């Protein structure tokens, strides 16, 4: 019988050893690294009220652990609580014993008990978590831009380097941006100091009347052992509230052309290539017949609806289209049996009620993973139907359902966990 519980400070040492062995690519076995990891995990456990470490025990032995996050998030322009899990690690001697599966089950139950309808994670293997009902979010696009391809902007009147006392203003700027952006996770006050922990990172801010309206966090990456002049500028965060802030910050980046080889930016904004006069990346590759490679893309963050009814209740002001229709939504959820049932949705001018009895116009069936991607706006209904991911009783409703589940923007997440 397994037990999942919060780790004590003493147990964090054992968990640290499990983490070091589970993630050899980002850790090492030196005593110094181990002590630093224990210190960091202990500090987080003691000081950050939004993060806790949990472990799975069998016969009082720790076999694996995970980092649990309680987030505040913008979902469809509603500020709601959500859950996240990271640093999932299993003792090497106990792999293939369903330790990770049971931990994810425990993670989901924690937030179901809190009436939180949505959780998320970054997958070490997307297929593993897809089987557990997690759906793909927005892809991450990595641009490697020539600085001269960015818009020129002569004025830099509002730009300056950030100082440590600007930490709270940076958090405020980020959270105002998050308030207007579906999918964003809010920062807490504890994170203000994180901006300045890495001495290699620099922050340029757009500051007006003592308010930061945009900022760039970046570092330089040496590209050659023999040529010290050859460096890339790697952007870690690019946040802007106004067009003016965006243009001045772009102007700053463009002006680095004499010193910077490429500017590296990761963004989930699917329209970003329209910013660039030259969107080509460094490869000079052509995709037949004449499509210039502009960026690379990857699948990352995954979302899971863990309570279908509660999700609708927690976004009461969201309009699911403007139509009036009754829908039988058949969700297949092999991981959470109580989720796997029919939901009777009465939609009146875009407002949804979940009823116990209802004569329905159309029946829609899909897997919870695909539904989670759909409800978050990471994929269109029409695309899911086209790919055979939806069972539909009447094809004449495709356009209506596509409009009903369409969001104004794909979900954007700039928080790593």
TrEMBL record:
SUPFAM superfamilies: Acyl-CoA N-acyltransferases (Nat), SCP-like
Entry EC no(s): 2.3.1.-
One protein family per Pfam: SCP2_2
Keyword Transferase: yes
InterPro entries named in the record: Acetyltransf_17, Acetyltransferase_Eis, Acyl_CoA_acyltransferase, Eis_dom, GNAT_dom, SCP2_sterol-bd_dom_sf
Domain of life assignment: Bacteria
Name used for this protein in its record: Enhanced intracellular survival protein Eis
Source organism (scientific name): Bacillus salitolerans
């Amino acid at each position: 019988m397994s037990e999942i519980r919060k780790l004590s400070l003493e147990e964090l040492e054992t968990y640290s050893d499990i983490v070091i062995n589970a993630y050899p690519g980002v850790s090492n076995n030196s005593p110094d690294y181990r002590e630093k990891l224990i210190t960091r995990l202990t500090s987080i456990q003691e000081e950050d009220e939004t993060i806790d470490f949990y472990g799975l025990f069998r016969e009082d032995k720790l076999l694996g652990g995970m980092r649990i996050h309680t987030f505040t998030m913008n979902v469809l322009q509603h500020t709601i609580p959500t859950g996240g899990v990271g640093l999932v690690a299993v003792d090497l001697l106990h792999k293939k014993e369903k330790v990770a599966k049971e931990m994810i089950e425990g993670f989901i139950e924690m937030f179901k008990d809190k009436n939180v309808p949505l959780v998320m994670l970054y997958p070490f293997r997307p297929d593993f978590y897809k089987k557990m009902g997690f759906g793909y979010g927005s892809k991450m696009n990595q641009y490697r831009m020539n600085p001269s391809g960015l818009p020129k902007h002569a004025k830099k009147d509002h730009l300056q380097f950030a100082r440590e006392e600007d930490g709270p203003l940076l958090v405020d700027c980020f959270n105002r941006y998050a308030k207007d952006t579906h999918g964003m996770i809010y920062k807490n006050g504890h994170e203000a100091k994180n901006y300045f922990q890495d001495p290699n990172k620099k922050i340029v801010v757009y500051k007006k009347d003592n308010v930061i309206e945009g900022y760039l966090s970046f570092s330089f990456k040496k590209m050659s052992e023999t040529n010290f002049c050859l460096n890339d500028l790697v952007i870690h965060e690019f946040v802007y509230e106004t067009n003016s802030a965006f243009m001045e910050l772009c102007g700053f980046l463009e002006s680095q052309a004499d010193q910077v080889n490429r500017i590296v930016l990761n963004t989930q904004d699917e329209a970003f290539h329209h910013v660039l006069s030259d969107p080509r990346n460094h490869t000079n590759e052509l995709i037949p017949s004449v499509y210039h490679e502009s960026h690379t893309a990857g699948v990352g963050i995954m979302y899971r609806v863990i309570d279908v009814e509660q999700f609708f209740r927690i976004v009461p002001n969201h309009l699911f289209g403007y139509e009036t229709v009754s829908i039988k939504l058949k969700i297949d959820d092999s991981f959470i049996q109580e989720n796997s049932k029919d939901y009777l949705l009465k939609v009146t001018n875009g407002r949804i009620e979940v009823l116990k009895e209802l004569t329905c116009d159309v029946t829609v069936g899909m897997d919870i993973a695909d539904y989670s991607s759909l409800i978050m706006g990471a994929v269109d209904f029409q695309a899911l139907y086209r790919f055979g991911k939806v069972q539909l009783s009447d094809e004449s409703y495709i356009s209506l359902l596509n409009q009903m589940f369409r969001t104004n923007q794909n979900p954007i997440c700039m928080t790593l966990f």
